[in-house]
Each structure stands twice: as structure tokens, then as C-alpha cells.
Design goal:
It is built from 13 helices and eleven strands. The protein is α+β, with helices and mostly antiparallel strands.
Length: about 400
């Protein structure tokens, strides 16, 4: 039974613990008459009514608590449990879901409340699964959804509707171009050149291995390289660390000729793509190596006017990549295109390095006129600020 530090309900608590529930109810009603703004009294009164089987009165007491604090986790949790006791499992599950949005971390809960919390999670999880199955059946008629882009989007739509997936939006750090959709992974069909890049994957991997055999990692540089005096935030652990290394072919819009000479087939394969070209910024490309047991923290890119391509080359098991609400694994020889201005992260939980080819392209939704205007605006901003360049 809940108890406020300033509550006059000590006698009621003692009575409840002794099993004198009716007496406790009366004492709590008297206490509320004196202290109507004490939410703990209302919660305790609801508990007393519930123990006496007075469900209508218990609901009324909880409404008193919720008038004082509509976001009270304990009041919402108890209300859902009363609804469940009444037999309305669907509304109880919805109520539990609402309570869970206000729940503190489970480790902060006492044992009885933690049990009630875990029960709420289980009931709401079952409800969500049944609702998702119902909505999927409404589309597919009892069959599994297909693998087309339309089916992928309707599956995401259903997951959003049942609360299993939260929406992510573009959050570019510098340049935001309005009107471009927030698409985590773009459909392969939007890029006719993608298969030709994948067809060159074996040759690209051979060039990468030749670089590693000849130079080791001498020409790889820490990808995160900020001055120590800057606010590093999530990059503090990886700043200037070889745990995330890059062999740059193109950086800040310029070719690194010494490196490019070691990967001619890689450059030829990338030339088939619609490469972004922004003076001082793009094109950009690199072999990106993530060392064992290393995670790249959630972050967002610079501009939504371009997209990023990953071609998997050396990928041991235990590696993964998340963009927004969608997580994928890399499969050697396969490529995907994503919007890096949507929060994304990567990890290598294996005991071996992971290396992928990364390069940038234009958003396919920009017209030639828009691309020209974007080049002008970006160049003018860099000239005005006396600086250019940006991370891939």
C-alpha cells in the first residue's frame, strides 16, 4: 500500500496490514477529506476498495488520483489491472500500454510493483502480437506478406500502427533540403546501376586484400578525427581510435591519387553510380574497417541531398547495421542504399575485422536544376565561413 511521507494515514496502513480493510477504508476516507491533494491517499483508498471487492469505488478512487496526476504510473497500472479483473482483456492491455509509457526503469521498482510491471509487459505484448496478426490478415487474407517494396512498406505501416516501430525522420547536421522523404533503406529498383557494382564485388574485395597484404593498415586512418577541445559527445570513445579506420579513395570532393592507384576496379565500379559532386564535400568514398568488439554510436549525417551506399566485402558473423527502425546485416557481395541523415549505428560483435566499401550518391529525387542550386548554396556557405569539407 502506497504511503506519502506527509500522509495522515499511518493508522490506515496499520489497519490494512492487520487485515482490517474496512477500518482502513474509513480512515483513508477521513484522511482524504482533510488532505484531498495527497495522491498516495487516493491510491491507498483504491487498494482498500479493491481488497473489499468494491470495484466501482476502486475505479472512482483511481480517478481521484489521476485528476491529481494523469501520468501517475501506479494509478494507471492499478486501473489497467482492475479492467483486466473485470474481464475486458483488450482494454486492459491498452491500459497497460499507457501505464508502461510512464514507467520508471524496472530496477527502480519495488518487488511487488516490478511483478505488476512485468505482467503489464506480457499482457500488452500479447495484445500487440494479436493486433498485428489481425491487421496483417486484413491485408494478406491469412497469407504471409510478400517481399515487394509495397509489402515492406505496409508491414512497416502496421508495425507503426501497433507501436512496435517508432518513426524516424531526417536530422541532417548541416544541410536540410525540404520535400525529400524519410526512407531508411531505399528500394533497389531505384538504382539500375546497383547490380553492376555488386558484380564487381569480387574484384573490389581482391583490391582491398591486396592493399592489406602490401601496406597492412598503414594507409588506414581513424575515421573519427576531432580536436580534443571540441564537445565530442558520442564520439569520445572512438575519436582518433584505430578501432574504426578508413582507407580513403575520395575525401572532401578530391581524389587521393596514391590510394586510388591501388583500387582502379573499385573506382570504375563506383563510376557507374550517380555520384554526388559538391565542391569541397563530395564525392567521398572509402574502405571502412570496424575492429572486433566495436560499436559505432547512433548518429546522423550532414545533408539529406545525398544518400550513402554500402557494399559488403569482409563481414564476419555478428555484425549489424541499423537505420531508423530497420536493422540489417551485411552480406558479402551485396549492396544497399540508405539515408544517413536518419539516425543510424553499426556494430561488430565478432572477433574479426569487418570492412565495407562506402560511397555517396545524389538523392534520385533531385532534379538537375535542384542539384545545381544545391552546389551553389553549399559552395557559397563554405566560402562565407572560410571552411569546407564534411564527413561522409
Amino acid at each position: 500500500m502506497s504511503q506519502s511521507a506527509h500522509s495522515p494515514s499511518d493508522a490506515a496502513v496499520t489497519a490494512m496490514r492487520a487485515g482490517r480493510v474496512a477500518e482502513a477504508r474509513g480512515l483513508l476516507e477521513e484522511a482524504i477529506a482533510r488532505e484531498p491533494s495527497d495522491i498516495a491517499l487516493w491510491l491507498n483508498l483504491a487498494g482498500a476498495h479493491r481488497a473489499l471487492g468494491e470495484m466501482k469505488s476502486a475505479f472512482a478512487a483511481l480517478e481521484g488520483a489521476l485528476r491529481l496526476n494523469p501520468r501517475s504510473f501506479q494509478a494507471l497500472l492499478m486501473k489497467a489491472s482492475l479492467i483486466e479483473r473485470s474481464g475486458d482483456l483488450t482494454q486492459a492491455a491498452i491500459g497497460y500500454g499507457l501505464a508502461l509509457t510512464q514507467a520508471p526503469p524496472p530496477e527502480q521498482l519495488d518487488v511487488p510493483t516490478r511483478r505488476a510491471h512485468d505482467h503489464a509487459v506480457a499482457v500488452h505484448g500479447d495484445y500487440t502480437a494479436r493486433l498485428r496478426a489481425c491487421l496483417t490478415d486484413a491485408v494478406a487474407g491469412g497469407k504471409a506478406l510478400g517481399r515487394s517494396e509495397e509489402c515492406r512498406r505496409i508491414a512497416a505501416f502496421i508495425d507503426h500502427a501497433v507501436g512496435r516501430r517508432r518513426p524516424f525522420h531526417q536530422q541532417p547536421s548541416t544541410f536540410y533540403y525540404p520535400g525529400l522523404p524519410s526512407i531508411e533503406f531505399y528500394p533497389r529498383e531505384d538504382f539500375q546501376w546497383l547490380e553492376s557494382v555488386e558484380a564487381a564485388a569480387r574484384a573490389i574485395a581482391e583490391e582491398l586484400r591486396a592493399i592489406l597484404r602490401t601496406d597492412g593498415e598503414d594507409d588506414f586512418r581513424p575515421y573519427v578525427d576531432y580536436d580534443e577541445g571540441l564537445p565530442l559527445d558520442q564520439w569520445a570513445e572512438l575519436n582518433r581510435s584505430p578501432r574504426w579506420n578508413a582507407f580513403h579513395l575520395e575525401k572532401d570532393g578530391a581524389r587521393l591519387e596514391v590510394n586510388c592507384a591501388k583500387a582502379p576496379r573499385t573506382l570504375e565500379a563506383m563510376s557507374r553510380a550517380d555520384r554526388a559532386d559538391l565542391p569541397g564535400r563530395s564525392p567521398a568514398s572509402m574502405f571502412s574497417t570496424l575492429k572486433p568488439r566495436t560499436r559505432i554510436p547512433p548518429h546522423s549525417g550532414v545533408s539529406n541531398t545525398r544518400l550513402v551506399v554500402h557494399l559488403a566485402l569482409i563481414v564476419p558473423p555478428g555484425c549489424g547495421f541499423r537505420v531508423g527502425a530497420e536493422t540489417r546485416s551485411w552480406n558479402p557481395g551485396e549492396a544497399f542504399v540508405f539515408d544517413d541523415t536518419i539516425e543510424h549505428e553499426a556494430w561488430n560483435d565478432s572477433d574479426l575485422p569487418r570492412t565495407v566499401l562506402i560511397f555517396d550518391i545524389w538523392s534520385p529525387l533531385l532534379s538537375p536544376t535542384e542539384r545545381d542550386m544545391i552546389r551553389r548554396v553549399t559552395a557559397a556557405a563554405d566560402d562565407f565561413n572560410g571552411a569546407g569539407g564534411g564527413a561522409l
